[in-house]
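**User:**
Everyone, produce one record:

**Assistant:**
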Amino acid sequence: MYQYITGIIQHYNHKVLAINGVEDHIHIFIGMRPTQSVSDLLQDIKGSSSKWINEKQFLKAKFEWQSGYGAFSYSKSHVENVINYIAKHEEHHKKESFQEEYLKLLKEFAIDYNEAYLFQDLQ
């Protein structure tokens, strides 16, 4: 799946710096060109990869990504740290759930949110 998603990203001339995931989410670190919005790229990634996963019948049930996504920008000085974080993703999630990780990122980036609307698809 990571190769397929990487192909989608490269099709739009963006660069995948790191990609990794666990059973309930993935992290993709992308060097994006200013020719496309994050929302348009994510819509294509989620739509195309869902279709591909279902056509290949990798799962017995129909696969769907949850609605929404999180996108965060990093300065060049943080690139190596983010790549290392994503590379150690499985290890990291032995200690922290997706929800805990996401809330921590929202707070770290000072993003306002309403907890009533977070994780609705996960309930």
Remarks:
- Strands lie at 15-22, 25-31.
